[in-house]
Amino acid sequence: MQTVRAPATSANLGSGFDVFGVALDRPMDVVRVEKADRTTIEMSGVGSQYIPEDPDKNVVGAVAEALDAPARIRIDKGVRPSSGLGSSAASAAAAAVGLNALYDRGLSRSELVPAAAEGEAVVSGTAHSDNVAPALLGGFTIARDGAVTAVDASIPLVACLPEIAVSTRDARDVVPESTSMGDLVHTVGSAATLAVGMCRDDPGLVGAGMDERVVTPARAELILGYESVRAAALDAGATGVTVSGAGPAVIAPCRESNRRHVAAAMVDAFAEAGVESRAYQTRVSAGATLYD
C-alpha cells in the first residue's frame, strides 16, 4: 500500500488564467492505494458525500486508467469540493504519485502531470494542468503548451472559503470570449510582475501582479460579498486579493506579520454579507508527499 498527502492549490492567481498555480500547505487530501484487479474507490472526509465512487465518474478513476494501474483507492478529503482550492486536483495528484510508486512506473513528477490532468477532465470537461501541476510539483508553477515550469516560493497567504458552491463549469461559462488590447496589455504586465514576485518571495509584487480586469470581475459576481471581502483584506494589510481558481475561495498574499489580521478581516466581511466562511492561514508550499 502507498499513502500520499496532496495539497490544496490556487490556480490563475488573477493574471495567470489557466496558466499559474501554487501549492498551499493546508488543507490537504490523503489518498491510499493498494493493487487490485480492478479499480474501486472509497470516499470519506469533507464533502465526500457529493463525490461519486464510480471510477468512471471520479478523478482518480481516470488517473488509474491513464497509468494502467488498477487499484483499491481510499480518499480522505480535506479539500472541499467546489471550493476553488483544487479539490479534484489534490485527489488526482495524490493518486498519480501513489499509483506511480505502487506499480513502479518510474515516472517523474512532471511526467505525471498529463495523467493527473486526465482526472481534471472528469469534473471540468478539459484536462487542465494549472491545479494538478502545483499539487504534484509544489511551489509556483506555470503550465502552458504541454510544458510545466516550477519554482520554489514561500509567500504567506490567506485563503478564505465561504459556504458557497461555485462549479468549475459555471465559472468557465462566465469568462468573456474576448477582451480589449488595453486589458490584454494590463494582464501581461500583471502576470510578469507576479512571476517576478514569486521568484523573489516578495508578497508586494505578488499582490500587485494579481490585478486583472477580464476574468476576475466576471467570476467575482458569483461570490456574494466579494468586493467587501476584498476591501477588508486590503485594509488589514493584504498586498492583493483575487478569486482562487474558479471560486468561491478568495486568496490574499500578505506579509507574515499581517496574516492573522487579514484572515480575521475576510471572515468578518463575509459574515457581514450573511455568509459563513473559514480562513486558512497558509503559504506557498511543497507538493504531494509519498509515505510508504
From TrEMBL:
<dbReference type="GO" id="GO:0004413">
    <property type="term" value="F:homoserine kinase activity"/>
</dbReference>
<dbReference type="InterPro" id="IPR020568">
    <property type="entry name" value="Ribosomal_Su5_D2-typ_SF"/>
</dbReference>
<keyword id="KW-0547">Nucleotide-binding</keyword>
<dbReference type="InterPro" id="IPR013750">
    <property type="entry name" value="GHMP_kinase_C_dom"/>
</dbReference>
<dbReference type="InterPro" id="IPR006204">
    <property type="entry name" value="GHMP_kinase_N_dom"/>
</dbReference>
<feature type="domain" description="GHMP kinase N-terminal">
    <location>
        <begin position="60"/>
        <end position="139"/>
    </location>
</feature>
<comment type="function">
    <text>Catalyzes the ATP-dependent phosphorylation of L-homoserine to L-homoserine phosphate.</text>
</comment>
<dbReference type="InterPro" id="IPR014721">
    <property type="entry name" value="Ribsml_uS5_D2-typ_fold_subgr"/>
</dbReference>
<dbReference type="GO" id="GO:0009088">
    <property type="term" value="P:threonine biosynthetic process"/>
</dbReference>
<keyword id="KW-0808">Transferase</keyword>
<keyword id="KW-0028">Amino-acid biosynthesis</keyword>
<keyword id="KW-0791">Threonine biosynthesis</keyword>
<keyword id="KW-0067">ATP-binding</keyword>
<dbReference type="InterPro" id="IPR000870">
    <property type="entry name" value="Homoserine_kinase"/>
</dbReference>
<dbReference type="Pfam" id="PF00288">
    <property type="entry name" value="GHMP_kinases_N"/>
</dbReference>
<comment type="pathway">
    <text>Amino-acid biosynthesis; L-threonine biosynthesis; L-threonine from L-aspartate: step 4/5.</text>
</comment>
<dbReference type="Pfam" id="PF08544">
    <property type="entry name" value="GHMP_kinases_C"/>
</dbReference>
<keyword id="KW-0418">Kinase</keyword>
<dbReference type="GO" id="GO:0005737">
    <property type="term" value="C:cytoplasm"/>
</dbReference>
<feature type="binding site">
    <location>
        <begin position="80"/>
        <end position="90"/>
    </location>
    <ligand>
        <name>ATP</name>
    </ligand>
</feature>
<comment type="similarity">
    <text>Belongs to the GHMP kinase family. Homoserine kinase subfamily.</text>
</comment>
<keyword id="KW-0963">Cytoplasm</keyword>
<feature type="domain" description="GHMP kinase C-terminal">
    <location>
        <begin position="197"/>
        <end position="270"/>
    </location>
</feature>
<dbReference type="InterPro" id="IPR036554">
    <property type="entry name" value="GHMP_kinase_C_sf"/>
</dbReference>
<protein>
    <recommendedName>
        <fullName>Homoserine kinase</fullName>
        <ecNumber>2.7.1.39</ecNumber>
    </recommendedName>
</protein>
<dbReference type="GO" id="GO:0005524">
    <property type="term" value="F:ATP binding"/>
</dbReference>
